[in-house]
Amino acid sequence: MASEISQLINEVRQFSEDRDWDQFHNPKDLAIALSIEASELLEVFLWKSPEDAKKDKIKEELADVINYALLIAGKCGLDVAEIVRDKMRQNAAKYPVEKAKGVATKYDCKLPTKFEQNCQRKLISSRPVTKV
Ligand SMILES: [Mg+2]
Asked: What are the extents of the domains in the chain?
């Protein structure tokens, strides 16, 4: 029995095959389309507070992103559940709970010390002013 993810991939591929669009769907162009759809998702939030974004538009654009992600996975013969779980294992090693819990900065980002902040301020204030 096919998983629900496999069924979804088949449905998205069937939609594309019915329209003879498969000829255009190589992984590169699908990745570009995914990026464009991700930008359309960003546009839903642009210049608004998150709670003011229209949920129908979020659903629509997120579905477009997922559809392209599923097409890429299908085209590349990837097992979606496997690659997502593999990546989660990598992320768990990269962001151990004891170091990452409640911290929004990247794992290798450290805040500058007071000494470093003072050095940066002095360096900036000692630069000659140049007019453009
Ligand atoms: Mg869209």
From this structure: 4-125
